[in-house]
Design goal:
alpha/beta, five-stranded parallel sheet, 11% strand, globular
Length: 251
């Protein structure tokens, strides 16, 4: 089961789903509340409700032995799901470019980003969210702002399109959800094999306050760092990611 980042829809996982489905795996992706083709409720745009919505879907489909794969905000959603609902239906987990333990700078996590960074996100989002999504996709998300980067206008346009699908209020609220939620205690509740993947040039979720700290909190976890890897490993390191996911599923 795949859980995407903000402000994307389940379309963000299409390459990985195609690859794994081609190897015989059943792949399921959902649109988080307010994102993609989901409904756009005014309230409840927080990690607890994201996790509970996911639990409703998992229970409705009666999934058993699932591998949950979460990217960015979706990694927080998977973490919150396990913290709130356990692993009765979960066999393995993957956190990729994920926001846990917490993105925000706190006394417990002094290497986090200051609140002013996320206030800036909110201000830019409200001022002109279309341009904001375009700027993020054209620069740090895919690493297209790095010297020598091979820029894909198709990826930029796709990311912008998916961003513009999300509800205005839902997208705004999600900035607080992905940046200020502390997943420390949820990570301690993991009791299934977990693969933690992160790019060391991730400009959206900096590695120094994310993956290595999560790996220390999650029992039976494996940390895999992609040298030069961006935030969007599913696009910029697609072949390596697909191979790593398949190997982890088969293990």
């Amino acid at each position: 089961m795949f859980s995407h980042g903000w402000p994307l829809s389940s379309d963000a996982w299409e390459s990985q789903m195609f690859f794994l489905a081609s190897h015989g795996y059943r792949c399921i992706a959902h649109d988080r509340r307010g994102h993609g083709r989901s409904s756009q409720p005014w309230n409840g745009n927080d990690m607890d409700n994201y996790a509970d919505d996911l639990a409703e879907l998992v229970n409705a489909l009666d999934l058993k032995g699932a591998t949950m794969i979460g990217h960015s905000t979706g990694g927080g959603e998977v973490t919150s799901y396990i913290g709130r609902h356990g692993t009765k239906r979960v066999a393995k987990a993957v956190l990729m470019g994920a926001v846990p333990p917490i993105m925000l700078k706190t006394a417990a996590y002094p290497e986090g980003l200051p609140l002013e960074v996320f206030d800036g996100f909110r201000a830019a989002y409200l001022a002109d969210r279309s341009q904001f999504f375009l700027d993020v996709a054209s620069g740090p998300f895919f690493g297209f702002n790095r010297p020598g980067a091979k820029v894909s206008q198709g990826l930029i346009s796709s990311w912008w399109r998916q961003g513009m699908q999300c509800g205005h209020k839902n997208g705004y609220d999600c900035i607080k959800a992905f940046s200020e939620t502390d997943f420390t205690e949820d990570l301690k509740k993991f009791d299934v094999p977990t693969l933690i993947i992160h790019g060391d040039d991730d400009q959206i979720v900096p590695i120094k306050n994310s993956a290595p700290l999560s790996a220390k909190l999650v029992k039976n976890s494996t940390l895999k760092i992609y040298p030069g890897g961006t935030h969007s490993l599913g696009d910029t390191s697609k072949d390596q990611l697909n191979a790593d996911l398949l190997a982890f599923l088969k293990a």
